[in-house]
Amino acid sequence: MFAHIQAAPADPILGLNDAYKNETNPNKINLGVGVYKDEQGNTPILQSVKQAEERLLTEELTKSYLSIEGTDNYRQSVQTLLFGENHPIINKKLAHTAHTPGGTGALRVAAEFIKKHLPEATIWVSNPTWANHQAIFQSVGLEVGSYAYYDASSKSLDFESLLASLSQIPEGDIVLFHGCCHNPTGIDPTKEQWQQLAKLCGKQGFLPLFDFAYQGFGVGLEEDAQGLRTFAEQVPEMLIASSFSKNFGLYNERVGALTIVCETADNADAAFTQIKRAARTNYSNPPAHGAAIVAEILSNKALRSLWEMELQSMRTRIHEMRGLFVSTLRSKGVEQDFSFISKQQGMFSFSGLNPEQVSQLRKQFGIYIVGSGRINVAGMTHENMDPLCSAIAEILTQ
Ligand code: PLP
Ligand code: TYF
């Protein structure tokens, strides 16, 4: 029965991580998978998380199942992070949130919900986007299209082409936006550009789906929510897939959420029963631990301010590495302008290195970056900056 099955290709990003583990170069550097790393190259457990876990250990009373949608405490905390305190969407009960296993789980539940209730809709993703986006939507049988986003020559947002692309999208289709810290380019629309996009969305009548995996990694928790909050003011319906893998460092606990916003509270109640149905046939109910940590941190003043400080320090370290990368390359005599890297947000930058250069970096120096040229800036440290930039300088002059 299984003899005919061909091996699936490795995930282009997670596969790279496996290859890195087997790399024998003692000076190897991993700028591949999007995981935050500190100055020592570790992905630490946040202090706020550790403290929340200590409390949970003593206070937790049962391991019985959660409900399909998760706990009320967690779900309310997620909505407050998304929209801010006392937002009309929350007060009027226009949104419902389901706790999902990670942001990926949220996208998968969203995909199944869309396929069942909007089967004719095409979902449009930016070119480029996180590779798993196409795969998730295609795996439920949805059509996936792409819209213009990145201008490779100026290494910036091609806003004119983005508007032109979205102007072609018909009513009833779905457009996926990265809430902030666009993966893989690190380029986000400005406040004014979000406003124009939201306006266009209202005019065209497509449904926005926000993938929000990096809240707090760009400018700040509130600022990073600007895009989706702008849309929430202009259009009555949207979907939001949240992930807390990065901003709480809870990667392997699988904590995320799917939020649906509807025009009326009745619509929201009805649609949410269908979201719960999609969750039920996938994983029945979510894993408790990670979400309990998030809820504990967000509802306790001291833990919350510790978490915000820790989040800020992750964000600041990445910004610092961006600046240092640009200045170190310059000090190595690299003439190509890399200053765009210090203007981008979040963990990732599109370096502009081509596949040949990416492969040379790996073969000659044990430096791993994604084939598209995407660099995880969080993998840089004061210690590896010099050898990294020397290697890039050498590759660029070959
Ligand atoms: N969306 C984007 C843009 C991501 O970069 C990631 C990365 O992991 C995810 C979603 C998935 O998040 P999670 O690990 O919580 O499933
Ligand atoms: O883009 C990244 O590197 C992160 C981590 O299938 C990731 O989002 C990468 C690939 C994948 C799951 C997570």
How does this structure look, described?
GO terms for molecular function: transaminase activity. Homodimer. This is Aminotransferase. It is an enzyme of class 2 (transferase). By secondary structure, the chain is an alpha/beta fold. It folds into two domains: 14-45 and 305-393, Aspartate Aminotransferase, domain 1, CATH 3.90.1150.10; 65-299, Aspartate Aminotransferase, domain 2 (3-Layer(aba) Sandwich), CATH 3.40.640.10. It has helices spanning 14-21, 47-59, 72-83, 88-91, 102-117, 131-139, 159-166, 191-204, 226-234, 265-282, 288-299, 301-331, 355-365, 382-396, and strands spanning 29-30, 95-100, 122-127, 143-148, 150-151, 156-157, 174-178, 207-212, 238-243, 256-261, 348-350, 367-368, 374-376. Strand 8, helix 9 and strand 9 form a beta-alpha-beta unit. It is globular. The chain starts with 13 loop residues before the first helix and ends with a helix. Bound molecules: pyridoxal-5'-phosphate and (2S)-2-hydroxy-3-(4-hydroxyphenyl)propanoic acid (TYF). Pyridoxal-5'-phosphate is lined by residues 34, 102-104, 130, 178, 183, 211, 213, 243, 245, 256. Residues 34, 102-104, 130, 178, 183, 211, 213, 243, 245, 256 line the site of pyridoxal-5'-phosphate (PLP).
